Amino acid sequence: MAESSSSQIIYNQGERCLCYHGPLIYEAKILKVQEVEEPHPTTGQTGRHYFVHYKGWKQTWDEWVPGERLLKFDETNIAKQKSLQDAAKAANAASSNKAHGKSKHNTAGATTGRDREPITAVGTRAGARKDGARGVKRAREDDDNIRRNEMKIVVPEVLKVILVDDWEAVTKNNQTVTLPRSPTVEQLLKQFEEHIKTAKPPNLREPEILARTIITGLQIYFDRSLGMNLLYRLERPQYAMIRKQYVTGQQVKIEENVEMSSLYGAEHLLRMLVAMPQMVANSSMDPESVGLVKDYVNELLKYMEAEKDRIFQREYETTSQAYQNTARS
Known about the structure:
Blueprint: E1 16-21, E2 24-36, E3 47-54, E4 63-66, E5 70-72, H1 75-98, H2 133-148, H3 157-171, E6 175-176, H4 185-199, H5 207-229, H6 236-248, H7 266-281, H8 287-306, H9 308-311, E7 317-318, H10 321-328
Helix pairs in contact: 1-3, 1-7, 4-5, 7-8
């Protein structure tokens, strides 16, 4: 997940950088810089925007991004890039083998832009520095910290297939989910809370006391990460339109302002949950909190598997050619 302070960092035209697209990070170059006073047509945000070209990819993938999706091209962020890519490959290897003959796809991108050409990491923690033991020692300390914050989740096979189908619908078939969704993320999480308070799964510690706090945290995290990390390029114009309709539009009253968790549904929540281990690894959560969140996320995945026919959209909506042109512009 992009750091909250990254939007305050200034980047220059021609600068080499790293850029979030979905939950992963890619090397890019800034081609243009622009100050935006009105909500941007593809991001729905105002402020400084950067037109980026992803290294090794066709120009048709060049796009405008807000500063919060960028990272400086340095050793720390390169290590973060590689760590996310390695975790994504491991998490999605089974998806490509199970998804009805879709194993020909690049498993590293099952929840990211796999329609792009593959990008490999350009450095590692220990390998990026060549100035002796100090760099290696820091690398080992970083790895120890990540292991302490390691969060292992078990994604049911049927949900892995749904992730691949979701990717294919958006990136290959130019389709999007219907918004607002039903149930929404907010509704789904409330239903899950009611479920665990009634079922009392033995692996969850004190659900009557802890469930509300943990589930509220997941909802807040979804609201903060959706626009930055959970959308494919084709979905960004839809996101901008939804924000204008419910958040930034002139007709929206302050008391009517809504969060994205009350508009998006299970499809985007699942994308966030499979990216949670990488997000937690880069956080300052203590091991006990990581363990609690892990247990609740794994139970939530089981619940989503059981409720899959009710919570996931069966058929996505096909976008118009005009919409697709806007997404590519």
